[in-house]
């Protein structure tokens, strides 16, 4: 009978991993096998595991991981249903591991796996708390960014991030890094968990200023599948930075609301003025503005404020119907109060603005409790 079979614990560390690689993935089925092969190659000789965190991808990513996991105990899959989000996927992957060092890496082979051992060693040696794969130190490059727009977004984001960071990082937007697991776990309750920028969130939220090293690394073009980063992810990022600066006093969700609400007010006023210029009466113009604002607010809240609970398919339509019904109540208040004001003062701008603000406040209250309620 072996030591493992007799009910006694194996000798300390006999089968525990020294490093856990967390790979968030969504629709990366074609990349799973090459990803595991790359990790086997660069981590040979270490005790490692890889945890894919998949948000129930329709392309069968989780099945592809399970197929490998059946014959390779290095490989595991955490599968989340009804949830989306890179940052929260990374957090849950880290929390599911027990290795002293965790590494985070994209599942699309854009991060250069050859740099992974250096990142791990910088943390495992005790020299740093966090080691970051940087595209902007000598030897790194950014060739994989799809186009000039992505380059501009990336550079703008880096500047914004550097303005608020407690440590110097040339590439705070990197999604390729290693960290002490205990530091990550200790910081986890303070993380925003929205959007893409988990590294920035970690550095900004850590209880003490972390010791950080940068390792030059390239960012390769994507071979299979497509990027999930879009402009709305950037909005979430800006919101997260504001959230951190406000020290948690303004919750991210509220700021998402405020942002969407402000856009709704602008849409409302723009359409109202447009219709008015075309000769519409106040009530018609106000209805036109209100309806456009409702649609914009629904769409933006679904994509930004509630990206993590995003309604799709049949639930999108029932959610929209519910949203419209409840907003109509707000809209009657909006147009009613606005036109009272208009009658009393014969003044368009203020009347419309007061009505619009009332409609927006109502929308806030409703959307959080009824339409996108936590399940
Ligand atoms: N579980 C889960 N859920 N994974 C996700 C989600 C999600 O909602 N969205 C994206 N991912 C996974 C992707 O499948 C991929 O493995 C990884 O997260 C990165 O997503 P991409 O969509 O490929 O991002 P990118 O290539 O545009 O962005 C990269 O560059 C940024 C810097 O410009 C990433 O490396 C980012 O981490 C990095 O910050
Ligand atoms: Mn990518």
Strand content: 5-15%
Radius of gyration: 25 Å
Please tell me the CATH architecture of the largest domain by its name: Alpha-Beta Complex
The set of bound ligands, ions and cofactors reads: guanosine-5'-diphosphate-alpha-D-mannose, manganese (II) ion
User: Low-confidence segments, ≥5 residues, pLDDT <50?
Assistant: none
First and last CA, distance: 48 Å
For the biggest sheet, the summary is: 7 strands, mixed
How many β-strand stretches? 7
Identify the CATH homologous superfamily of the largest domain: Spore Coat Polysaccharide Biosynthesis Protein SpsA, Chain A
On the 0 to 100 scale, the average pLDDT is 85
Order of helices and strands: EHEHEHEHEHEHHEHHHHH
Largest sheet strand order = 3-2-1-4-6-5-7
What name does the CATH topology of the largest domain carry? Spore Coat Polysaccharide Biosynthesis Protein SpsA, Chain A
User: How would the global form be characterised?
Assistant: elongated
Name the CATH class of the largest domain: Alpha Beta
Helical content band: 40-55%
Number of domains: 2
What is the number of helical segments per DSSP (H or I, 4+ residues)? 12
Pairing-aware structural class of the strands and helices?
alpha/beta
Write up what this structure looks like:
It comes from Ameyamaea chiangmaiensis. This protein is α/β, with parallel strands linked by helices and 375 residues long. It has two domains: 19-226, Spore Coat Polysaccharide Biosynthesis Protein SpsA, Chain A, CATH 3.90.550.10; 252-370, no CATH class. The chain has helices at residues 29-43, 61-69, 86-95, 116-124, 148-164, 181-187, 198-205, 231-245, 252-277, 282-305, 313-345, 348-371; strands spanning 19-25, 48-54, 75-79, 101-104, 130-134, 177-180, 212-216. A seven-stranded mixed beta sheet has the order 3-2-1-4-6-5-7, sandwiched between helices. Helix 5 (148-164) packs parallel to helix 8. The radius of gyration is 25 Å and the shape is elongated. The mean pLDDT is 85. The site of guanosine-5'-diphosphate-alpha-D-mannose has 23 residues, from strand 1, strand 2 and helix 3.
């Amino acid at each position: 009978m072996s030591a493992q079979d007799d009910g006694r614990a194996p000798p300390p560390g006999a089968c525990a991993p020294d490093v856990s690689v967390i790979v968030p993935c969504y629709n990366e089925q074609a990349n799973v096998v090459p990803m595991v092969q790359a990790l086997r190659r660069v981590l040979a000789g270490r005790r490692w595991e890889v945890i894919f965190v998949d948000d129930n991808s329709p392309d069968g990513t989780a099945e592809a991981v399970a197929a490998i996991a059946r014959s390779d105990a290095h490989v595991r899959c955490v599968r989340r249903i009804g949830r989306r989000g890179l940052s929260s996927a990374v957090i849950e992957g880290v929390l599911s591991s027990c290795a002293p060092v965790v590494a985070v890496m994209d599942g699309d082979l854009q991060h250069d796996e050859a740099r992974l051992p250096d990142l791990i060693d910088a943390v495992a040696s005790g020299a740093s708390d966090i080691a970051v794969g940087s595209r902007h130190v000598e030897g790194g490059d950014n060739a994989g960014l799809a186009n000039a727009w992505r380059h501009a977004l990336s550079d703008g984001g880096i500047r914004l991030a550097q303005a608020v960071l407690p440590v110097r990082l040339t590439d705070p937007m990197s999604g390729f890094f290693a960290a002490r697991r205990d530091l990550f776990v200790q910081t986890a309750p303070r993380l925003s968990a929205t959007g893409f920028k988990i590294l920035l969130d970690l550095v900004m939220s850590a209880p003490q200023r972390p010791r950080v090293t940068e390792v030059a690394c390239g960012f390769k073009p994507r071979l299979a599948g497509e990027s999930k980063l879009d402009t709305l992810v950037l909005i979430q990022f800006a919101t997260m930075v504001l959230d951190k600066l406000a020290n948690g006093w303004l919750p991210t969700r509220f700021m998402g609301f405020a942002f969407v609400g402000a856009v709704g007010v602008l849409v409302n006023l723009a359409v109202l003025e447009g219709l008015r210029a075309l000769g519409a009466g106040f009530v018609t113009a106000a209805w036109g503005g209100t309806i456009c604002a409702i649609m914009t607010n629904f769409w933006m809240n679904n994509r930004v404020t509630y990206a993590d609970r995003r309604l799709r398919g049949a639930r999108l339509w029932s959610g929209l119907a519910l949203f419209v019904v409840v907003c109509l109540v707000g809209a009657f208040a909006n147009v009613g109060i606005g036109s009272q004001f208009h009658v009393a003062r014969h003044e368009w701008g203020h009347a419309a603005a007061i009505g619009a603000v009332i409609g927006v406040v109502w929308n806030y209250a409703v959307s959080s409790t009824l339409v996108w309620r936590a399940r």
